[in-house]
Write the C-alpha cells for this entry.
Amino acid sequence: MEITKEELILEVLRQEKPDFHDFSTTELADFLNDYDEYSNVIIEILEPHRAVKTLKFLDLRVQKKLIHTLPSNIVATLIQNMHFDDRTALLSELTSESVKKLVLFLSPEDRIETLALLGYPEDSVGRLMNPDYIEVKDYFTIQDALNKIRKLGRTIENINFIYIIDDSERLIDDINLKELLIASPETRLSELMDKKYIALNVTDTQESASSVFRKNNRAVLPVVDHDGILLGIVTIDDILRVQSEEDTEDIQKIGGTEALDEPYMNTAFFELMKKRAPWLVILFLGEMLTATAMSFFQDEISKAVILALFIPLIISSGGNSGSQASTLIIRAMALGEITFADWWRVMRREIFSGLVLGTILGSIGFLRIVIWSSVSPIYGEHYILVALTVAITLVGVVLWGSLCGSMLPLLLKRIGADPAASSAPFVATLVDVTGLIIYFVVASLLLSGTLL
Amino acid sequence: MEITKEELILEVLRQEKPDFHDFSTTELADFLNDYDEYSNVIIEILEPHRAVKTLKFLDLRVQKKLIHTLPSNIVATLIQNMHFDDRTALLSELTSESVKKLVLFLSPEDRIETLALLGYPEDSVGRLMNPDYIEVKDYFTIQDALNKIRKLGRTIENINFIYIIDDSERLIDDINLKELLIASPETRLSELMDKKYIALNVTDTQESASSVFRKNNRAVLPVVDHDGILLGIVTIDDILRVQSEEDTEDIQKIGGTEALDEPYMNTAFFELMKKRAPWLVILFLGEMLTATAMSFFQDEISKAVILALFIPLIISSGGNSGSQASTLIIRAMALGEITFADWWRVMRREIFSGLVLGTILGSIGFLRIVIWSSVSPIYGEHYILVALTVAITLVGVVLWGSLCGSMLPLLLKRIGADPAASSAPFVATLVDVTGLIIYFVVASLLLSGTLL
C-alpha cells in the first residue's frame, strides 16, 4: 500500500527531532490546511525562508491563527521575511489593532512602507504593490544595470523589466531584461529607450488593472502616483487572484447572497447565515407585495379559480427572462464590454429579445391550453379566452422581465452601487409583483362578461 | 474642444499617404473594433510587426473578417509573424477548412507545430502552449546559456526561466534567469540545479493549470508530455484570459442562458435568441407542471381562495433559497474547494441552513398574517391556522430549496455534466412544483374541518 504525504508528515512529527527537508513548502502547506493543530510546531521548526514560503500557501484562516498564537519573536522574523505583497494581503485581513501590534515587529523602513500601502483603498492597485523592483537612471550603461541586478537580484522576485527614472523619481521608461542581454554591455540605457511604457496608477481599481494586464499581455506592470513617480510594481499572479475573487463575489451576489469572505466550507455556520438571511428576508418582504397585489384580485380568483392555476407559470417566466438578461448584462459590465452610455442600445436589444422570447412562450402556453381542452373539460367553455389571456400576459411579463433585468444593473452602476446586487432573485421578485398585475389586468379586459 | 483619438485616426485616413506612427497598436485596435470597415486599409499600411500587434488586440470577429478578406500574401506575413499562442487561438476559432487553407501559408516547421497543437482537446493545456522558450543542457556554463539567450532572445517573449533537458529531451530542471545573472559566468548549470521544478502536463485541463499557477505564484510554466519530454511553455496571460472566459460561461449558465461565444453586444440577435430561448422553453415546460399540480388542488383553492394569495410568496422563497445554495456550491466547485466526496458535509450544512433560514422566513410570515388580521378581516376567522400553514410550508420549502440547490450541482458533476447547468432558474423551477405540493398537503392537514 502506498503511504500518503500526510502520513509521512505525521510520521516525521512523531520523531524526536522532526526534520521536514524531504517535503516541499507546498506539501507542508497542503498538510497544515487540513491539520492546523500542527501549524505552530512545524512553522517553528522550519528555517525562516521555508517558513515564510509555507505561510504564503496557507489558507488565510490558518495564517491568522498562526500570527495570533506564535511567539512574537518568530512572528517578527516571519513578517520581516515575507514578500511585500503577501505581507500586505495578510495584514489587511487582520483587525486594525492586530495590525498595529504587528507592524511594531517590522523594521522602521518596512513599517513606513506597509502603512503607506495600507492607506490605499482596499480595491486599489496600491494594495497589490510590491516595492521589489530595480530602478536605474538613463545615463547607466548596460553593464551598470547588470551590476545592480547582480547586487539586488537575490531579494527580488521578478526582474523581467527594469525601470528608468529621472532625477525627480518619475518613471520615464521600462526596459525588458532581454534587451539588456542582447545589446553590448557598454551601451547606454538612453540608447535603448523608446519612452513607450504602460503604467498603472496607484489609485486605479484592481478591476481596471486586470483589464490592462489582459489587454497588454504583461506579467508585471509598474505603478506610479498622480505625479508619475514610480512607487512599485504589480505582478500578474496577484491580478489572477484578485480576478478570481471578484468573479466569486459577482457569482455569489448574482445568486442572491452577500459575498462570502472565505471559502464556503471554511465559513462558520453563523457567518453563513449572516450572509444569506438578510437577502432572503429582503426578497421575502418584497415578495409579500404579491400577496397584497393578489388580495385586490381575490374576487376575480374566486369567480375564476382557473386563473390561479397559471400564476406560478406566469411569474416564473418573467423571473427567468429577467434572470437571463441581468446576468448577461452584469457580466458584460464586469468585463467592460458595456457601460451606462450603451443603455439605449441594450434596451432596444432587450425589447426585441423580450418580444421574441415572450411570443415563443406565449404560443406554447396558448397551444398547451387549447390542446388540453380538446381532451379535458378542466379549462371550461371559455378556454380560448383563457388561453389568450395567458398568452398575452406571457408576452408582457417576458418583455417586462427582460427590460428590468437589463436596465437594473445599468441603473445601479449609474448611482454608484454594485451592478451584481441586481441579482437574479432580486429581479425575479420585482417582476413577480408587476407580473401579477399584468396578468389580472389582461384577464379583466379579456374575460369580463364571460368568466369575470 | 478636444479631438478624440478616433477623430484623429479618421483624419489621417483621409490623407493621401496615411501614416499611423503617432498611434499605438492598442489605440489602432480600439479604433478598428468600432470601425471595422477600415481594418483592411489600416492593416495593409502598417509594417508587419505593428500589424501583428494590432491584430492581436482586435476582437476575434474583426480578426476573422480580416483573415478572410485580406490578400493572401499579407495574411501569410501576418500569420508567420504572430506569436504561437495567439496564432493557435485565432486558428482554433476558424472553421477547419479555413484552417487548412491558412496553414499552407506557414513555413513547414510552423505548420507541423500548429497542427500538433490543434490536435489537443480544446480545453487542454496543449492549446495554450507556446514553443518560444530556451532549452539548455546541464553541462552548459552560464556563459553558454547567456550566449544562447543573446542569439534567440530577440524572438522570445518571456525568458524569465530557461529549461534544462537531458539527452532524450526530458525536462530535468528549470533555472531562473536571475540565478544566471548572479552567479559567475563559468559556473556550470549542473551546479545551479536543484532538480525541483513544477511542470504542467499537455493533457491537463486549462482549469487545473490555472490553479497550479495561482498556487505557485508563477508567470510561466513548462509543459511536458506523459514521458516528461518538454513540449512548450504556458504563460500566465493566457491563463488569465482562460479563467475570465470560464467564469463568464459559469455566470451565464447560472443565469439560465447557454454560454455566449462572443461579447453580448457583438452577438448577433438571432444567435442571442438561440442561446436564450431553449433554456426559457425548457424551464417553461417544467413550470407547466405547476399548473398540473395546482389543478389537483382546484377544489381547495375554490373553498379557500385565501390560500392562492400566498402561492407566489411561498414558491419564490423556495426558489431564492435554492438559488443561494446552488450558486455557492457551483462556485466552490469551480474553485476546487468542494468535490463530490464532500456531499455529506455539504448536505448536513444545508439541512441546518435550510431549517434556520426557513424558520426565520416562517416566523416573519406568521407574524405578518397575525398582525394584519388584527386590523383587517381579510384572512378570515381562522387566520391563526392560515398563518400556521404558511409558516410550516415556508420551513419546508426553504429546507427543500437549500437541499436541491446544493445537491444538484454535485450530482451533475458526478454524472459528468457541467455543475453550472443547475442554474438558479432551473433549481427554482424544480422547487416551485414541489413547493406547491408541500403547501397544499400542509394546508389539507391543518385546515381540513375548518376552511377546507
Chain B has a mean pLDDT of 84. Chain B touches chain A through 114 residues (CB under 8 Å). Chain B is about 65% helix and 5% strand. The radius of gyration of chain B is 31 Å.
